[in-house]
């Protein structure tokens, strides 16, 4: 019998042309790709009733050159002054740059740019060199009522820096990315807010060579966007890393910060704890540029001791038992795993493919022992910390998982997951080339509402025909966890997509989840904020807004939707 | 040779007469006492150049009956309305009650009341029965611009509820002390804010019997004032318990709360984490009644497993080595001890007496091994949590302490310390009967400033002749710790005492410590707040104040000193 050659779609494996729409919306590294593997490709065809034929021709690619006709509306005198402040070489009014630094990573933006639809773009891009320049620019903009947006790593998934009222966009990652101090005694690092994850982590891992420290350190914060998000962004959007169950969320990891506001620049107290009134630091955390611009951060750092890391993985009979085990671990008072990730049956189905379990001896044993497809659930994890601590965590986790009927899968699946942990966003471009959208929404829940929220949201998502919905929980606390919904649909209609997304958000909040666990609010979520917080609490935020920014120049249209 | 009978002062060991000044200022249980033991008594005589003779006659006792002439200034109509709201049986305008619920636990107040000096007292005492009544009263007071203070457990050491502008005082502990829910799934307990420590802990320890839970729980928060402080007070003053290094400070332990403000009543979000803008909960924490009144609290609870508790104690050669070991433990990533307490040489000198080490075989071995009096430093601790976790902590702590030259003292000193942990405040009344003042001030520090702050503050305190100064650190973080200064002086002049206290506060902040680690601000510390926070940050707090309380009726003269 002749072997048929397996069809592989012609996934784009080339950096986008400079100046193209694709170069604007492509995530991360222009040379970075993660093509759907054979298993996922087969799954997509099956789900969406597609054949190889449907993957012979791309629907939209965005390879066209950006050609807009949206002149900058900014007063020439203001541009001139900003040129003086930051240097002409550090500003741009080209339409391409203005579009690029107005664009985040929402599916909606990608759909539009693939169709050459551009909406509002900033009027001026500025790459400030230091915090004094930022204060000068904010003062100038405040005087002239010019809106100011901040672009950190550009990975917002909710229009977090969308220039709703046009104005200027400050790009913090270009120059303001320096490590100012690694303080080994206090275990803190002070950095400029525009530094991206890898540079920060690299400086800490190499603290002996770079800062004369005795020890190596880690920042402990590894969101999926790690490579393309800034430390300032982590804080103002209240982000969480993939090891947050041990290290804490961004909100726990910042010790103090310096922020530039229309009311001036200040640095918050940097004591490890202090009982001197409500903490100003807390007011800035999560403020998404609406109060001011975080320019410097002092971050709590940890020992970098990867040799102590333990890996583990388990298969459970069902979602209920993996949730029960996770709760027992989270409330077990023996320390927390770092990576701690449980997948519901549909995600497990894909995870077993992706982490290379399918078809292995594990697969056979699982089947033999009665872990049924479409029911079974995957748990992968790691433990970080001192040797004795990580050893004990692994031991206790194993004990609890076994008690809940799980089978141990060795470190294999967690080790298989780890190297690709930042790569998933690259899938999006390939899928969208063929009209398939992959998008995520996430929420936080208390333990007693995890099943209700999971069921209701999943039910809504699956009520749309031909829809994949993968759910995991990956940030754990004694009081609850998060739920992360990944949905994959075939959809070409932007409005239909938006309606579906709105429906999911509405369902999340109706069923008892928070509006966001770690993605922040942005223009996308802000319409739900008052309903979520209640009028009185919204008014407190508005009072702060009015105090910091009476002229509403700081990221207008973002967090506050005004 | 005839044995001389040892002289023991006639320490008062009788509940104060009802209606006396002493009954107003006496700490805690009217029948509670902790008389100085023989060793401390000898030490006091030595330090202050006193003889037994000086302890034959008391200087001030406050046993006189309270007789004031300070009529309530409150409008009769308002009193009438409040009587209607809360019931006449739950209000009082007697001078005794008004004085009692205006009085905290500062040395200054005690000195004054012993001399029949009374300053401002509240005009009406109200014991509200529920949160709806509080909202009605706050609305009424807001309309009439009547100041409102809150008395929880009454243990403020900084005039936290002093009625600077007179008005009404709400006593929350009388009726609003119920446990509303113990949620075993989420590991939370929801209670009325006036509940005191023992009732709360008792309900949690007995959750199976009282709430039908499967497990027993603990609140994890055990400040020295535990028996006479309320959960609402813990939160609005940002308190810390003696086991905070493991369980966290009050600020870490509250999940959500309900608060009544002149702008209305609201309940904050109760997700374990959420990225929906700056957290309103954080705005209320530490607000010391200046924004509103916390009426209900949802608290994070822990497993109650005292059988797992490990105890340990060590003697170190000096302060530097015990600080180094503490830092290594705090940054060791194997979990934290619960009680974690290190004493400087002067406190160690007293601690060894108090914890029964002096004169034992340990004492001889210590001397033999070269742990010198006036240099050596004591460390006592416990570990809480699951068995394997506490066992490992004890093992790691031992390893680190030995590395830093310490000698293990067995669980003995920690076990000796534990039963008397809430009793020290009772010492104050005996000493003050003879004109000796025992007072405390405390601060938080980063690791790299612990020695500077300790030395400078101690130097200042010791520059006063005949002064005892004991210092310990008892709340640990990877980034730093606190310093708790206990000073004992003989002083009869109120102004001289106040000047000395001001000098210490000034020295703390000058040398780099925070104004308070866990006692809060109150009228006593508030004059330093703007200097400490800076004008811009103070204005942020003022903006919030203005939003919540435009008429400045909520605890005026407290946190904001206005």
Structural description of this entry:
The structure is a homodimer of 562-residue chains. Chain A is of the alpha+beta class. Chain A has two domains: 282 residues, Uridine Diphospho-n-acetylenolpyruvylglucosamine Reductase, domain 3 (2-Layer Sandwich); 115 residues, Alpha-Beta Plaits (2-Layer Sandwich). Chain A is 36% helix and 17% strand. Chain A contains 23 helices and 19 strands. In chain A, strands 12, 13, 14, 15, 16, 17, 18 and 19 form an eight-stranded antiparallel sheet that branches. Chain A has a five-stranded antiparallel sheet with strand order 5-6-10-8-9. In chain A, strands 1-2-4-3 form a four-stranded mixed sheet, covered by helices on one side. In chain A, strand 8 and strand 9 form a beta hairpin. In chain A, helix 3 runs antiparallel to helix 6, helix 13 packs antiparallel against helix 16 and helix 19 packs antiparallel against helix 20. The mean pLDDT of chain A is 96. Chains A and B meet through strand 9, helix 12, strand 11, helix 16 and strand 16 of A and strand 9, helix 12, strand 11, helix 16 and strand 16 of B.
